[in-house]
Amino acid sequence: MSDFTNKKQQEYFYAYSSEGSGNDSPFYKLSTTEDHGLNIVLVNKVEFFSEAHKSRLKSGFYRLDDGKHRWMSKKGDFLADIMPNDRYFILEGYVPSQLLTAGNVILTIFLNRQKLGEIKIDCEGVFCRAVMLNGILDTIVRHKVLISIEASHVFVPAEQGNNENDRRELSIIVNKGGFSSANVFMANTEGPARVTEHPYFDGDCVICGQAARFEFDNWSLHRESFVCPHCGATNRNRQLARGMLVYLAKRGFCYESIRALAVSDDLVSLNILDTDAHYAVSNALKKKKFYWISEYLPQYPWGKVLGERCSNQNLEKLAYKDCAFDLVLAGDVLEHVRLYKMAIKEIYRVLRPGGAFVFTVPFISQQYENKSYVEIGEDIKNDSLIGDAVYHEDSTSGEGALLYRIFGRQLLEELESVGFVVHYSHDTIPLLGIYECELFYCVKPMIGTNDVE
Q: How far apart are CA 219 and CA 228, in angstroms?
């Protein structure tokens, strides 16, 4: 488990607006010091590395590729559930031999910043230790508590001959930690009870409107994680729905959730086009007369009617009249469109003045150019792959949808060149179960103005 190949991750949060940010550039870095209430394992995994100052993360965790274990720096925090009858705090992990070169490792455990006890480790390998609570529960008034761990010392892999580029300060590898009413360490069971293995939010789903616990269970695809246990909506689904509700609020229709919209009799004068017919929003709204759905089925003629307010559409050449819709939604669609610039122009065409194109796509804010996976030829037969073909899950295709690109900042300029007023944000909103998710909110100005209302 002593794997030092996990490189530093430099992560930033950005926002963008065509109308300017008040800074030198409309594309600017936001503050990352806000406490979003997210499990601190996630908050502290963000590392800002400066070549000038050689700064390193002093408190937090570095995720290993397996998603189950985390290198801890000198200190680390996480949240865990605690019950009135709990007697022990259990910590499981791994101590690498490199850490023991400076002597035994002492781990000091704090509960809500109050010292709970110490764990001494004097040999390499997997460990599991129990610390008695000793009446400390008398001071606990909440079922969720902050656990802090501080190691007596750290090591730097590059200074010990392991991966010369890895200059992180590391201590132990943490597998899990939590509370138990039984001495699970002595009982040699699988591990502590009620361990918070996955960071999560407690909040309300902006789609179904129900209170939910959104668990983070997929390190490699966090945009597809935080699934609502009631309606199945993902992180990015809720971000898209939030953008939709923002637009409707600007038009005077205010709803707390898509479900509330679904049971309303309003919006008879508005037309909404959704390019995804198979997710929580479409499930909720498909019977509403203002809501239209498109499918992408190349085996059928474009424009073919597939059902009530549902038709077969190619975004590169939409079979709709000009100014047909007030709002167009696209959840992770453009990255699968061969000629996406044509699609953007078509969406602009079918929007009414003052209408909005609200969408999500895989987006890397640190890079300008799109990362292409397919080289586009004169026609589709002359396209060629750049490396192996990459497919994303698609409910209408067993093989999946071919990935053409992951977008960079050039997309912002391309949207503006068509005429859109562009607002981009990268948001974490715990109460809505949204974490590090992008949203593009693009408005077609009113005729003769730059009015986005």
A: 17
Domain holding 75, by residue range, is 14-197
Mean pLDDT of the chain: 78
Residue 92 CA to residue 356 CA, distance in Å, equals: 50
| 204, 214 Cβ separation under 8 angstroms | no
Q: Mean pLDDT lowest for which of 89-98, 275-284, 310-319?
A: 89-98
Single out the residue of 172, 183, 84 nearest to residue 132, CA to CA: 183
Compute the distance between CA of residue 285 and CA of residue 287 in angstroms, rounded to an integer: 6
Pair (39, 186) in one structural domain? yes
CA dist 10 and 16 (Å) reads 19
Domain count, the chain: 2
Sheet with 114-121: list strands edge to edge: 75-81, 144-151, 105-111, 114-121
Q: Is the pTM of this model over 0.85?
A: no
How wide is the angle at C-alpha 16 spanned by C-alphas 404 and 275, nearest 5°?
Answer: 45
Owner of token pair 């040699």: 188
Question: What is the C-alpha to C-alpha distance for residues 19 and 167, in angstroms, rounded to an integer?
Answer: 41
Per DSSP (E only), the strands in 70-215 are: 70-72, 75-81, 88-95, 105-111, 114-121, 125-132, 144-151, 173-180, 200-204, 211-215
Local structure of 100: helix, strand or coil: helix
CATH number where 317 lies: 3.40.50.150
Band of pLDDT at residue 325, cut at 50, 70 and 90: very high
- Strand-pairing partners, residue 106, are 120
